[in-house]
Amino acid sequence: MSGAWKALGFSLLMVLSSLSGCLGSEEKEEENAIDLVVHYDSTSGTIQQSFIGGSQISLSGVTLNFDFARTTSDFDLATFSIEPGDGRSPITVNAGETANIDVEYELHGLFSVILSATDVEDNSENMTLIVRIDKHMEWTEQNSAEPDVMPINTEPDNEGPVPKTLQILSTIENPENFQGLAGSPVTITWELTDPNEVSKGIKSEQIADGQDAVWDFSLAYPERGIHDLSVTLEQGADERVNVNHVIDILYEENESEINPFPTGNENSDTESE
Prior knowledge:
Mean pLDDT: 86
CATH class of the largest domain: Mainly Beta
Structural class: mainly beta
Shape: elongated
Low-confidence stretches: 1-29, 267-273
Strand content: over 45%
CATH architecture of the largest domain: Sandwich
Radius of gyration: 30 Å
Distance between the termini: 63 Å
Number of domains: 2
Number of strands: 15
Order of helices and strands: HEEEEEEEEEEEEEEEH
């Protein structure tokens, strides 16, 4: 009977030794995991777009830089990669050639951005950031008797949340008669309609010759889609106006905190501690 107990004890010892080996392997794999460290000075920005007479004349996107230089692995690093979160394919670079990735955005919205690193043994590590991209638009028309309707697309360029605010600052000028003759006042009406052609804001004002008028209007959480901003002159008016719309599409400030590259002073402070 004692022999049977010894055999059983030996078997249990072998099982425990086997489990210990497995646990040790898992710990070793964890020790070999990539330490993903990425530095970035900004996680937000504003697209700038300008129109004259209804035609786009400029568009400036937002470029964000991500620095993987302090990412390490027990093996050689193979690639660094970023999924921009706006429908584009991942941007991937060879880790042996560069540790920097620039991502340019020309679309507005709140984007879930995935940063990742892979080594030559196919180990990988990733992290997710939230990036906020707002949009600023300027629309100008000169000497117009029938100003164009300005379309404003509030649809975020992903499946994320709608903007927090659609901000309109519109200035209409009734310029003086270029011949030096006294001009007439003009009554104008601003109106913003949503994608369902429902009026979301309206204002009328009479503008004396050589004067201007301003409409400062905000729409909270606008519906997705095309909103139309129109300016109409009173029927039969024999006047022309100058139009300047300034539009901002703004999102909740939910972007991730920045993580700038440490300066030399910060390094010295860390080492002294």
